[in-house]
Design a protein that fits this description.
By secondary structure, this protein is mainly beta. The protein has one domain: Cupredoxins -  blue copper proteins (Immunoglobulin-like, Sandwich), CATH 2.60.40. 11% of the residues lie in helices and 41% in strands. It has 2 helices and 17 strands. The strands form 4 sheets. It has a 5-stranded mixed β-sheet with strand order 5-11-10-7-8, with no helix packed on it. The longest helix has 21 residues. Bound molecules: copper (II) ion. Copper (II) ion (CU) binds next to loops.
Length: 241
């Protein structure tokens, strides 16, 4: 009798342990900016009427987009440290489109080895010029005339962040965060992000913005729970002369 009960308790303990090992948590939060938000200038696209025609109202630069309370859009949030195991690249391609002579999205996250479909919805000439700095990631520089609707690329090593630009339209720029796991997000217009499906563990989360110093936080996921981690980014203090 005692033996059976002990066996049952062991089985229960194993089930509970397996449950916690299988638990998937989430980290979510809001990234805000504290300081004066620069005004995004209107992009003069007049030199290329095809670009201009795609916009009902004038397009504006996108390198610093913040809401009324400083909610920062286009911040790349990712797990920098603490993950164990391998996460194979998804076969599903990430997509970045050239539409209205603007990259959509402006900030994108991908996994190492994941195909990236670079589209040209514009019917005008673009030139996709990728400028990775990490050894192992190939630079490329490809013309996409109007009729060339898609090229597919990938990056082979993690890099925060790979810059992409267009040599035809000097205002065009995008950043691609390349990581070796699926635990990343890009903040929405309201500054919010969520990283789902995280195994139990303690992680270093980094937030990256194109124009501001990056910031990290340590976050522990204990089980099936959502942990909140908000960030405030500031400009670096001015250097004394
Ligand atoms: Cu272009």
């Amino acid at each position: 009798m005692y033996g059976i009960r002990k066996g049952a308790l062991t089985a229960l303990a194993l089930v509970m342990l397996a449950g916690s090992l299988d638990a998937k948590g989430s980290i979510k939060g809001t990234v805000k900016y504290e300081g004066k938000v620069p005004k995004m200038k209107v992009i003069r696209m007049g030199a290329d009427p095809i670009c201009d025609a795609k916009h009902d109202s004038p397009a504006r630069a996108e390198w610093f987009l913040a809401g009324p309370d400083g909610e920062l859009k286009n911040v790349f949030v990712y797990v920098k440290e603490g993950l164990k195991g391998d996460y194979p690249a998804p076969s599903e391609a990430a997509v970045i489109d050239q539409n209205g002579c603007v990259y959509k999205p402006h900030v994108l996250g991908v996994q190492v080895g994941q195909p990236i479909n670079i589209l040209n919805s514009d019917g005008t000439l673009h030139n996709v010029h990728a400028l990775p700095k990490k050894k192992g990631n190939d630079k490329f520089n490809e013309a996409m005339p109007g009729a060339r609707k898609k090229i597919t690329k990938k990056f082979n090593t993690p890099e925060i962040m790979v810059r992409i630009k267009c040599d035809v339209h000097p205002w065009m720029g995008a950043r691609i965060g390349v990581v070796d796991h699926p635990f990343y997000a890009v903040t929405a217009e309201d500054g919010s992000y969520e990283i789902k499906g995280l195994p139990v563990g303690t992680y270093t989360i980094e937030v990256w913005h194109e124009k501001l110093p990056a910031k990290t936080a340590t976050v522990t996921v204990k089980g099936d729970e959502t942990v909140t981690s908000d960030f405030t980014l500031k400009r670096p203090p001015k250097k004394k002369k």
